[in-house]
Amino acid sequence: MEPTLISVDYFDSSALVKRYFLENGSVWVQQRGANPTRVIITADLSRVEVAAAFASK
Questions:
Q1: Helix, strand, coil share (%) of the chain residues, nearest 5
Q2: What's the pTM?
Q3: Domain ranges of the chain
Q4: Which of 31, 38, 39, 50 has the most beta carbons within 10 angstroms of its beta carbon?
Q5: CB 13: neighbour CB atoms within 10 A?
């Protein structure tokens, strides 16, 4: 059995927001997030920053 290769992407809060709002770069972010061989990681602080972005929109 061959090992499965998994790639990791670090998304900051601006990239995470692009997943939910149409902005420049949103298509790229959505494609990366939809790829099952990729793992998305982020910092704990992103929760607060994304919440603030959602509240402002």
A1: 45, 15, 40
A2: 0.77
A3: 7-56
A4: 50
A5: 18
Half-sphere exposure of 50 (CA within 13 A, CB side): 17
Give the residue among 4, 10, 6 at the shortest CA–CA distance from 40: 10
Q: Which two tokens stand for residue 24?
A: 């420049």
Q: What is the pLDDT of residue 57?
A: 79
Q: Which of 4, 9, 5, 7 is nearest to 40 (CA)?
A: 9
Q: What is the pLDDT of residue 48?
A: 96
Residue 31 neighbours by CB under 8 Å, 6+ apart: none
What pLDDT score was predicted for residue 46? 95
* Residue 54 tokens, joined: 């959602």
